[in-house]
Amino acid sequence: MQHKPDVVIMDLNLSGIDSPGLITEISRVNPKIRWIGLTSYAVEQFRKTCRGGILPG
Is the C-alpha dihedral spanning 1, 15, 35, 48 positive or negative? Predict the structure, then answer.
């Protein structure tokens, strides 16, 4: 990883990109990174997307 940010702000609904998968991959490389996720998902849809180790559900 060329850059090592402390915080990443990311849209969780990027067209053509598996955002939760990308968050997981980047977190493996830099486990200290913190995330701010932006979304237009309904609350329940957001929780389902973020489960699986990305964010506590």
Answer: negative
Domain chopping of the chain, boundaries: 7-50
Write out pLDDT tens, residues 4-52.
889 988 887 788 888 878 888 888 888 888 888 877 766 666 666 565 5
Tell me 55's DSSP state.
S
Amino acid at 34: R
Q: Which two tokens stand for residue 21?
A: 């998968």
Crossing angle (nearest 10°) for helices 43-50 and 19-29: 40
